[in-house]
Structures are given as structure tokens and as C-alpha cells.
Design a protein that fits this description.
It is a single chain. The protein contains 13 helices and 23 strands. It is α/β, with parallel strands linked by helices. The strands form 5 sheets. Strands 8-7-6-9-11-10 form a 6-stranded mixed β-sheet, with helices on both faces. A 6-stranded mixed β-sheet has the order 22-21-12-13-14-23, sandwiched between helices. Strand 15 and strand 16 form a beta hairpin. Helix 6 crosses helix 11 and helix 11 crosses helix 12. The termini are far apart.
Length: 517
């Protein structure tokens, strides 16, 4: 075919021949062949997520146009979207429940958590509450943008993007996961689905344009509980019973969504006299403070650094990611790799360990600059000094001063959000009864190192409790106890939303938190 050429692609799985169109980028050509690169920035050339090796040089797959390359194109594991994610489908329910399911008692139900990065699905026997199937995967919307701001921006400039994003999350992500979780069970037994997610994800699931949330005053089209029939969601009627009811959980604001309200219920924060906090550190850091029956919530622009985005060797948590590390008194770096695989990069929990351990060992100063004089530290153009942790040459796993600066920016946003909420209510960290850490990042985080690096400033280890995927837990709870849904609706009306950029002292607090303790 004219314009087509065969290229050789090398991955850890071996050599493969791929037919691609000349004049397209490597990412576009590979995507057409079913190979998807990890384009964290939506293909805008702003990150290193899709880095591939061409003729011995690392280039961005989203920018490099296929021409007359000689030799194979090498795709590192950390640049492939096919990297197996480590997604939390487990959660801790700190509350009891009644048994009054939203669907037919003899049928099956689904609890779904749509995250910006990952999606998790549970299949539940409504008669018993038993989880009989589960599945999780990356949200295929990531191919069009790493974060909600990018995806909202697409919808602002191109109304057809709403349909593409809906198709990516429903038909390309959720429906395959439901099939996987159902296994051999009859899909027509699925009588009810409960969906948690941030406000943007729920808009896109329903095919509603989230563009109004892209500019002040950030007004969602809907926040209330929304009930959809199977025929109202693309592809649903063809897969499941026409009577299958789809419940979208209620949220409180554009950036304090149903994922957080579900977590407030599942964690027990709703019934906690407090003062207590729920902290969900994802692409957006979402925080709620509860005190004596009142609730204050905020969202922080932490960005995706704790998911590895924009970092020299950053990857999401999954097989091959360095999830934890420790620096011995002798200066040896001991690493713990997820899946006991060969290391391909660091994920968020590994970076938090590094900040705490390197500061403790005196390798970096308060502003994240290297003090260590060692052959492992060398200059890196555009990123200051860099420490090599593993590997050699262009495949080495490194942490640069530029990486540390991005991490400090993210941790400062979370820490400042926590401190401003506490200050608003006259509470000191030592007075907080419990800090509930939600989500996959919180589950695998070392609480001691999160405190030591200042991500959770001023707390003690015994105050921290990981609650897993609390958004999925809240969806599961609502599926089996319809009163839980009513309580979430009431809760949404009680949360006072704090806009951090309008709070006195926020900027000063944020700047203070840029330093390591």
C-alpha cells in the first residue's frame, strides 16, 4: 500500500514487524497497529512518558515523525501503556451497612470507580453482598490527556471530543472490564451499577460536556445523583439487560467529586466526631476535614508527579516499578521492585521514600539540591545533577534535581491544602484524631516517610490509616444499601468548599512547604 512501510519494533517481549504510514508520528503509527504509548500529556510533547529509542537516541514518540529510520525502534517498558497497573480494588469499610440493594436481589450488581488514571470494577451478588468478580485497568482516556484539565480543554475546543472521551472510558475501558469480571456469568443478570468518580469523569461517562468546569466559576452541569437507563449509555444496552439501572453517585463541587463523597462514607469520616482528615493523593489532591459534624473540602493542583509523570524515570505503580527504597548507613541504596521484576523506573511511593531517605542521609539539602559527592551523581543537561540508582547509559534509572523540584511542588500543594484546612478550623496536626489515606498511592505509601518529607506535615505515624480504594468502597456500599446513597446526597449539601487560592496565607504556606523538613 502506498505510503505504508514496515518497521521493526523491539520490546521486552521481543522483535515485531509493524506496518505504519509514513508521515505520521511514531505514536500514531504504533497506535494504528494496536501498540499504545504512555502519552501522559496527551501527545503535546510536554512529558517524557512516550520516550522511544531511534538510532540510539531517545525521542518523544508523540513528536518524532516516521521517516527513513534504519534499524529497529526500541520501546522501553515504561513507555508502553500496556504496562500492567497495580490498582487497588481492595478497601476498608469502617462502617456497617443494611441490606437493601439498589437492584433485584436475585441479580448481580457492579460497583465501578472511574479514576482519571485507572478504572476498577467489582461484580457483586446482590442477595449476599459477596464479591464474585473484579477487574481493573488503565482508563483509555489517558491516550487523550493525562489529567482532567487537559481533557476538559479538549472538550472546550472540540465538542466531538466528548464523544471520543466517552467511548474511551465506556466502550474501551469499562465494558471490557465488566466482561472480564463477569466471567462465565450471564450478563443479563446485571441489574444495577453504581459509579463513583471525580466530577469530570462522571460527566464524560454520561456524555455531558465538562467544558463549564474549565473556567471560573467552574460550574458543573450536574452534581446530584443521576440515574441512567441502559439505553442512555453508549454500548450498555447491547451488553446487559435493558432494565439495568446505572447510578452516578453525587458530588460536592467541580473538583470535590463523587469519588470523595463515597470515600467519606466508606472510611467512616462521615460519622467521625473528629477532627479527622480524608486525604486522596491522586492527579488532584483532594482533602476533607471533619469536625463536630461539619465538613470542609478542597482540591489541590498537585499534578501527576506522584504517578511518575514528567520525571526522568517515573512510571506508574506496576510490575517493574521501584515501589520502596532505603538508604543504608553505609550509603547503599536498597530497592524493592513491584512484582520482583527487573526495575524500569520509580513510582510515587518510591519517590516519597527517596525524598525522606536522601534528606535523612544528608544526600540532599532542604531545597532538594544534591550534597552527595559520589560517582553516582553527575550533571544532567537541563535538570541539574542526577543520581543513578540502577542501570547504565540511556537506560539508567535516575533521579535528577529537576525531578526533585517537581516532587516538592506536588508535596507542597498537598501539605499546604492540609494546613490551610486545619488553620481555617483552628486545629493543629497533633489534635487530629485520624488521617485516612485513600487510593492506591496512599495504600502503598510509607506513612513515616510521607511525614518525614513533609507530605503530611506535623503528624505522627499512629494518626495515619490507609483505607484503600475508598471510592470503590463507597460505590459497593451504595449498591447494597440504598440508604447510603441518601446519606451521600445529604453529605454533599453539607461540605463547605474552600478555594485555596482565595485563602489568606495560602501562598506563603505553599512556599514554606516547598522545603524538606
Amino acid at each position: 500500500m502506498a505510503g505504508e512501510r514496515i518497521i521493526q519494533v523491539v520490546t521486552d517481549a521481543g522483535l515485531r514487524s509493524v506496518s505504519v504510514a509514513s508521515g505520521r508520528t511514531i505514536a500514531q503509527g504504533l497506535s494504528a497497529a494496536g501498540i499504545f504509548l504512555n502519552m501522559r500529556c496527551g501527545g503535546r510533547g510536554l512529558c517524557e512518558g512516550c520516550g522511544v529509542e531511534v538510532a540510539g537516541q531517545m525521542v518523544r514518540g508523540c513528536q518524532h515523525v516516521i521517516g527513513d529510520e534504519v534499524g529497529p525502534i526500541r520501546l522501553p517498558a515504561r513507555s508502553l501503556l500496556a504496562q500492567q497497573p497495580q490498582i487497588v480494588t481492595d478497601f476498608r469499610l469502617n462502617v456497617s451497612r443494611a441490606h437493601d440493594p439498589l437492584g433485584a436481589a436475585e441479580g448481580l450488581g457492579a460497583a465501578i470507580d472511574i479514576g482519571t488514571t485507572t478504572v476498577a470494577v467489582l461484580i457483586v451478588e446482590l442477595a449476599t453482598g459477596k464479591v464474585v468478580g473484579r477487574a481493573a485497568a488503565f482508563n483509555r482516556q489517558m491516550e487523550m490527556g493525562e489529567d482532567v484539565v487537559t481533557r476538559i480543554g479538549l472538550c472546550c475546543h472540540d465538542e466531538e471530543a466528548v464523544g471520543r472521551l466517552q467511548r474511551a472510558v465506556v466502550e474501551e475501558t469499562i465494558l471490557p472490564l465488566l466482561r472480564e469480571a463477569l466471567g462465565e456469568r450471564d450478563p443479563h443478570r446485571l441489574s444495577a451499577c453504581v459509579v463513583a468518580g471525580n466530577t469530570t469523569m462522571l460527566h464524560l461517562f454520561a456524555g455531558v460536556n465538562p467544558a463549564p468546569m474549565g473556567t471560573a466559576p467552574f460550574t458543573p452541569v450536574f452534581l446530584e445523583h443521576r440515574l441512567l437507563a441502559a439505553g442512555q449509555v453508549r454500548g450498555w444496552r447491547d451488553e446487559f439487560a435493558p432494565a439495568c439501572a446505572i447510578h452516578l453517585l453525587p458530588g460536592a463541587a467541580a473538583y470535590v467529586g463523587a469519588d470523595l463523597t463515597a470515600g467519606i462514607l466508606a472510611s467512616g469520616l462521615l460519622y467521625d466526631a473528629g477532627p479527622s482528615l480524608l486525604v486522596d493523593v491522586g492527579t488532584n489532591g483532594e482533602i476533607v476535614l471533619a469536625k463536630e459534624g461539619r465538613y470542609w473540602g478542597c482540591a489541590t493542583a498537585a499534578g501527576p508527579a506522584f504517578e511518575g509523570a514528567g520525571l526522568s524515570s517515573g512510571v506508574r505503580a506496576g510490575d517493574g516499578a521501584i515501589g520502596h527504597l532505603r538508604i543504608s548507613p553505609e550509603g547503599q541504596v536498597d530497592i524493592e521492585v513491584i512484582g520482583n521484576a527487573a526495575p524500569i523506573g520509580l513510582c510515587g511511593s518510591g519517590y516519597v521514600d527517596f525524598l525522606a531517605e536522601a534528606r535523612r542521609a544528608g544526600w540532599i539539602n532542604a531545597m532538594g539540591r544534591f550534597e552527595l559527592k559520589d560517582e553516582r551523581v553527575s550533571a544532567r543537561p537541563g535538570s541539574g545533577k542526577a543520581l543513578r540508582l540502577a542501570g547504565e547509559g540511556p537506560r539508567a534509572i535516575v533521579i535528577s534535581e529537576g525531578d526533585i523540584a517537581r516532587l516538592l511542588t506536588a508535596k507542597a500543594a498537598i501539605a499546604a491544602g492540609v494546613l490551610i484546612l486545619l488553620r481555617r478550623c483552628g486545629v493543629r496536626p497533633a489534635e487530629v484524631k485520624k488521617v485516612y489515606l485513600a487510593g492506591g498511592f496512599g495504600t502503598h505509601l510509607s506513612a513515616g516517610n510521607a511525614i518525614a518529607c513533609g507530605l503530611l506535615p506535623g503528624f505522627e505515624g499512629e494518626q495515619i490509616e490507609a483505607v484503600g480504594n475508598s471510592a470503590l468502597g463507597g460505590a459497593y456500599l451504595a449498591l447494597l444499601d440504598r440508604t447510603a446513597l441518601q446519606e451521600m446526597e445529604q453529605l454533599c449539601r453539607r461540605i463547605e468548599i474552600i478555594e485555596l487560592n482565595r485563602e489568606d496565607g495560602f501562598e506563603e504556606t505553599y512556599i514554606e512547604q516547598l522545603a524538606l523538613p
